[in-house]
Write a structure and sequence with these properties.
By secondary structure, the chain is mostly helical. It has one domain (3-174, 238-404): Na+/H+ antiporter like fold, CATH 1.20.1530. Helix content is 77%, strand content 0%. One of its GO terms (cellular component) is endoplasmic reticulum membrane. It is a multi-pass membrane protein.
Length: 405
Amino acid sequence: MQLWTLFLTASIPVLESFLITVLGSYLALDRVNILGQDSRKHLNTIVFYVFTPAMIAANLAETITYDSMIKLWFMPVNMLLIYIVGSIFGWILIKLTRPPPHLRGLILGCCAAGNMGNIPLIIIPAVCNESESPFGDANICATNGVAYASLSLAIGAVYLWTYVYNIIRISIKTSIQDSTHITEISSTSDHISCTKPLLSSEDKAYQFALPYSVSAGDAKMTHLGIIKEWMAMMKEKLKLKTIFAPSTIAAIVGFSIGLISPIRNLLIGEDAPLAVIDDATSLMGKATTPLLTLIIGGNLVQGLRVSGIRKSILIGIIIVKFVASPLIGILIVRGAVRFGLVSNDPLYVFALLLQFSVPPAMNMGTITQLFGQGQSECSVIMLWTYTFASLSLTFWCAIFLWLVA
């Protein structure tokens, strides 16, 4: 295929996504107010808890088998490498631009986490349906492509809520502690106040030892209590509720149905007794992509109304996501194919390469809203990165198609 033909083929899905995004932005304008802030919030909740889990569970259940699991083992590793590479570039960017402390976690997160599910869910099936697609039969290509994108979305959700969430949490907590410390020092003229105890009540609780005469049964109960407290503390530290998001649970369900033959025979296939459940789930899942794209467009409007982030930071994030990361991705994926770690399936290789070129994850805005800091800066980052993504994705998709064709 000629490079110009590949460029046109890659531009169609990006243009489709762009048009739906523009529609979402128009509906979110104040004079229209169909997709206002409250509407987006409620719609995002429905998509988060209903449509996205339905799409992930249905697609994984229909396409994941033991053989495909062996084939797809490299995708979680590929995404982990994306986070590592993005974090390194993000750290370099922080050293160069010296942003405020509360924005360091946001910058690291934007450089590391990408839109691993929504963008591939739009682009891959659309490329499969193009007449010049190098991926063969359109139906088989679309089915496998949606499975790759669904797995990408599920794994991306786990990485996002375990790594990025805690990076931003630590960054904001550190900035608050630093500002509090500076305030305490500035309010003290010639002496240091010692009114604050060195240990909190929780720290002191661990300083008390058990009496020497405690019975064995009481000691056992005490140890059980300590273990329960430790488990509760670890649960709070790890934020298991955010790790096991609905999309993660849906991925577990989809994997279970696909890998356990008796359950798969009950639900999957035209002759399956409970095939209607799978059909209903798939029907709900098909609404995910257009709704998410509309929400993205509506959220971008907020970026037009706020400012407060330096241009050097924006330019740095754009260079990391759309120049450095795709180039590193080509080296990693092509190297994995060369050494036999990845099968030379053009669609699978294309999906792995695409993961390196997507814009920052839209859930970055959700995380900043949870902590109440960095929302306006995140909106500006999302606005400009997704604006550049319309051109960058077209270019890189054409290059990736040329590499795998």
